[in-house]
Amino acid sequence: MNRFKFIEDHHHAWGVKRLCHVLEVARSSFYEWRAGRQARAARERADAALAGRISAVHAEWDGTSTP
User: Fold this and answer.
1) pTM: predicted TM-score of the whole model, two decimal places
2) Each residue's pLDDT tens digit, 42-51
């Protein structure tokens, strides 16, 4: 688990300011990370789709890289 995710998961109990201080993370960095959530999710979906396509091509060629 990265520090930003930990802060996200626990900020209701201890607050962002305190967690950032303890974990030595700039609050602005945490909020920037949080703002990029949708972009990261889109990238993860694209990566999963690409991995599926690679697996399909690999299976199509019976596990070989040449015809």
Assistant:
1) 0.63
2) 999 999 999 9
